[in-house]
Amino acid sequence: VESLSQLQVERSTTTQVVAIVQVEQERARQLLTDRKVAIDTYNASAKHLQECLVEKTLAFRAREGVEEEAKLAMLHAAALERTTANMRLLWDAAHTDRQQVKESIQTLKGQLEGAVDGRHALSDRLLALQYRRKGTKVHTPYGVGVVQYFRESDNILAIRLRTWKATVYISLVHFIQAAKAMQQRELLAMRSVEVECKAFVRVERRREASECHVMETEEALCREITLWAQQMAAKEGHIRVAVTKVEVQTQVRMALRDAKRRFRNEAEADAVRAHAAKIRLVRPKLKTMPKKLAPQRSTSLAKMTAAMAITSTNNATTNSATPAALPKVSKQSTLDKTRVARAALKRILMAHAEAAVLTTERNLVAEYDRVHHDQLVTTVGNGCVASLLHELLVDVADETIQEGVVGAKTMELQSTIVHSRQHPHVQVNVHVALRRQVVGRKMQLEVVKRTWARQLERLRCVQAEVRRRNDMERRAEEERKRLEAVCKEMAREDLACRRFYREEKRVMMVESRHMQLAERELQLMLEKYNTLDGDDKNKEGSKVARRLQIKKGKREKHRLADEWAAIKLEDDLAMA
Question: What is the pLDDT of residue 291?
Fold first, then answer.
């Protein structure tokens, strides 16, 4: 009976567990349905995202130019923002420094005023302290004395006079007022000395200015002398080079002429020898004479010799008329005639060469003198014209300057332009030019402002579009992450369900095993009690019971097979 009741309790427990398993199975089926719906939603979202990406690509392609301009504008705007931020930082730092400097100046001014007041307050006390010390030397109306002691009750000094050998009692206030009067006299004296020093410094500065002017004049003269020396050196070098060139050309020409003359004389001598050899029966062998002994005759030398002979004859005839007897002229040899002719020719050539050199040098000197004269005339003319213009335009320039100053002041009063301290007043034309420049700059800045306004508006539109698309991408990414999280949660629940099913299956198998064992024990117990009866009826009943037991065993096997098939089907459905 207890076993039956225990079996009934276990059966009721198993029934409850089966009900719970069915509920969980229904929940798992519902989760599978939700998973399928989520997968379908995810596929639809992915398809929609793909379509959005296609639209985005088309929009990017359609707005490529605008995006490029927007990128450039964004870069420029970023650069402007950085520059503005840097300028703002610099402005803030400068403003902070300025405020700190102002505060420091105010603090220092307060400290200075306090120090001045304290100095004025302590001046009398310092003087009193100086005179109160024992042994201090003071000047009294009665002479020089030394302080013996100070009486604080009535501020009286006891002074020992050196000359009178007496002690006098004088108030401390008297000495303090005397010291202040002496300080005032020293201050006045220092002011007069300062005025004299300033006058002396002004005189010294004027003297230094005059000395600098004289030194500048001397330096200009030295520069002119140095420039003149350089020009003369260049002139002499140029003349030297030209003269050397002429001399070299003359020497070369003379050498060429001598060579040509020598070759011509040798050719004439060879022609004479050849002609003489043709006339003779026996042609003698030509012998060349040494150059030192061979006479070089030419037509020019013969003519020059004949001219010199005629000149000597004329001279002899002229001299014969004189009463003085001249020595007899010996006949010159051929060698002497040749030597004299050569020397005369050389003198003539040297005279020609010297004449060419002198002509070249004279022309160069005349050219340099002409250039120097032109420079002097130009310098003097420029100086005269400059002095004349200076004398004529002084009054005109003064009147123009005064008119310009008056006009500049008037225009300054009529406008808001702030000028510098170095140049407080500018001319009218400069003022007008500055005003036009300011107006032009203002117009340029307005154009730049409008341009930047348009660019910033475009940039704002582009940024809004970019934010919208980023928001869409962010939401799509969040939806994708949410679906992934849901899928992961469903997968975790699926695994938990499978683990729960396996555990329940194991418990069920254990329970069924225990139930089979309990049933087997019950059957054995019943058989035991049935065998104790020992009659035939009972035997027949035992056979029937045996057949019933076999049938029940088969039914149990079929039931278990059906349960296993249902469990496998559920597993397959859960895996799908």
Answer: 45
